[in-house]
Amino acid sequence: MTRSLEVRHHDADGQFDDDLGLDLDSDRLHEECGVFGVFDHPDAAALTALGLHALQHRGQEAAGIVSFDSARFHSERRMGLVGDNFSRREVIERLPGNSAIGHTRYSTTGETILRNVQPLFAELETGGFAVCHNGNLTNGLTLRRRLIADGAIYQATSDTEVILHLVARSRRNRFVDRFIDALGQIEGGYAFVGMTNKKMIGARDPLGIRPLVIGELNGKFILTSETVALDIIGARFVREVENGEIVVIDDKGLESIKPFPPRRKRPCIFEYVYFARPDSIVDGQNVYGLRKKIGAILAEESNVDADVIVPVPDSGVPAAIGYAQASGIPYELGIIRNHYVGRTFIQPTQSVRELGVRLKHSANRAVIEGKRLVLVDDSIVRGTTSRKIVQMMRDAGASEVHFRIASPPIKFPDYYGIDMPDQDKLLAAQMSIEDMRAYLGVDSLAFISIDGLYRALGEPGRDAAQPQYTDHYFTGDYPTAITDLVGEGAKQLSLLAEAS
């Protein structure tokens, strides 16, 4: 599947429904997952668990590790957080071997059930093969339907399983050639990390939409989604896997293969705005510093007289700091986040349900009361949580509330690995800026411009003829074919939506 299909909540009059239950993260964007692999290290499973800890922000629903001990593969896949499942010695001891790959997941395709937890494993003609995947295949449903018609038996509902079947059905002799054959049939944004009994293999999509980097620890190679996973184990960053590149690691070292026609790189711009951890290095740039630059340009474009800058924690913090530094307005923690609340908490009565947002965010009245506020956040998706936070500021005595957003309006859905609502639930797709301002209950509302965002990333602006980044959620400019949304693929999406 290309992305999550969930029950949508509408009021009888078709307006946005503020009651999304007590799923406190329902109005946020979510990356699909993080991947990690280490080859030929005596502490492979333990290092993988640590790496997944550092990638926990990329997925909190499930995690898994597969190791290889020179004779057999071992798998531990669990629902829940990495720390809850892989911090105990007895679990790591069940993953012997010098090579391991791991995955932490936020599901955008397939159900949240154990059989979809990665890495997936299969015994192929060439031997065992474990694989994990960050991103989405935009022809995954179409390929799945074709493979099932040809007799393939699927065990999971995740699009990652497609790659197992394509590799298994390839008639090429070498495993690497089979893997290349499989990649030649898929579309979308992806970063794969796979493992056989002799090799570790990594691959990044031809546009480099999803991230993948190479590290080194005591002469042993590592593949992972972000540099923070290297930092936590004391590994050295070597370089990014290039767009369209396949890297093969074995006892001879690392081999780079570029089997497809070269294309211009277009990484996902939301990695810089939101998904990557602030202390990560993406394309040679520190993410924290970039987000401060975004905030500074946002202030230049839409400054307003105010008494205090207040971030919406945690994702709005770096941009708010940059906004405060550029505007000269003091920065204060006007909202305190409770970090000990999960995505679900209790099943309260309807009267208590309305207070759900306060479980995660509390107003710091001493900072807010009688003040003109500039609230800074990274994005607006549905707008339901933003509306409640604004009301919280009003209730705490704010005299004015101005909302500033460190990304352009999100008007189009994503199909490359971001869990995003359909277009009819994206606030900016349904309302003008003025209508959004009224809906949110703020005195003014402004977003950074698309050119301003590009300038923060070191570009003179967005090149409309050849965009430097994947930014379709703002522009509608999808960089690849989306086969699953036409013809039979669209019918399959409709059936799955009805089933959910």
SSE layout:
Blueprint: E1 30-31, E2 33-38, H1 44-54, E3 62-68, E4 73-79, H2 82-86, H3 89-93, E5 99-105, E6 120-124, E7 127-137, H4 140-149, H5 161-169, H6 175-183, E8 188-195, E9 200-204, E10 213-217, E11 220-224, H7 228-231, E12 236-240, E13 246-250, E14 253-257, H8 270-275, E15 281-282, E16 285-286, H9 287-302, E17 308-311, H10 317-327, E18 335-337, H11 350-353, H12 356-360, E19 361-363, H13 365-368, E20 372-377, H14 384-395, E21 400-405, E22 418-419, H15 427-430, H16 433-440, E23 444-447, H17 450-456, H18 472-475, H19 487-499
Parallel strand pairs: 17-20, 20-21, 21-23
Antiparallel strand pairs: 1-22, 2-5, 2-11, 3-4, 3-5, 6-7, 7-8, 8-9, 9-13, 10-11, 10-12, 13-14, 15-16, 18-19
Helix pairs in contact: 5-6, 9-10, 9-17
Q: Could you write a compact summary of the structure shown?
A:
The chain has 19 helices and 23 strands.
What's the number of structural domains? 2
| Mean of residue pLDDT values | 88
Radius of gyration: 23 Å
Number of strands: 23
Descriptive report:
This protein folds into 2 domains: 32-266, Glutamine Phosphoribosylpyrophosphate, subunit 1, domain 1 (4-Layer Sandwich); 288-472, 3-Layer(aba) Sandwich (Rossmann fold), CATH 3.40.50.2020. It is built from 19 helices and 23 strands. β6 and β7 (127-137) form a beta hairpin. α5 packs across α6, α9 (287-302) packs across α10 (317-327) and α9 crosses α17 (450-456). The two termini are 13 Å apart.
